Amino acid sequence: EPALPPSVNREALQRNIVALVELIERIEREVVFPALPEQYSALIRSFLAEQDDLEHCLAGLRRSANAARVNASGERLEQLAREHVTHEETLLFPAVERDHPDLNHALYDRLVAERARLARDQAAHAT
């Protein structure tokens, strides 16, 4: 939202958004994309290019103290994330679900295992 209530700390919100996008990007790169059949390699490369653009925006958010630049990077990040999700939901996921119906179950198991591993890593890093 452009106008946040005074109780919301903009920097904390920004850190949470950056962490969430990084987590999603990592899961896609390390779990989802490697599990997909070779026939999707060209499409995966295009998604990786989109993720590189997302990472560029994330880097801008992390290093900038200028509010105008942070806002511009945040708006660009939102636009890129929406486009990325739309492309996945319209181009990739329907094709994979149609052509490889058993893959969803295998991916779900891998995602649950990766989530548990990341939670352990974060707990170890926090201590």
Topology:
Layout: H1 10-35, H2 41-63, H3 67-99, H4 103-126
Write up this protein.
This protein is mainly α. It is 83% helix and 0% strand. It contains 4 helices and no strands. It has helices spanning 10-35, 41-63, 67-99, 103-126. Helix 1 runs antiparallel to helix 2, helix 1 (10-35) crosses helix 4 and helix 2 (41-63) packs antiparallel against helix 3 (67-99). The longest helix has 33 residues, at 67-99. The radius of gyration is 17 Å and the shape is globular. The mean pLDDT is 83.
Q: Fraction of residues in helices?
A: over 70%
Number of helices: 4
Principal-axis shape equals: globular
Global Rg: 17 Å
What oligomeric arrangement do these chains adopt? single chain
Q: Taking all residues together, what is the mean pLDDT?
A: 83
Strand content: under 5%
User: Uncertain runs with pLDDT below 50, 5 residues or more?
Assistant: none
The span between the termini is 33 Å
Helix/strand/pairing class, anyone? mainly alpha
Number of strands: 0
Largest sheet: none
Order of helix and strand elements from N to C terminus: HHHH
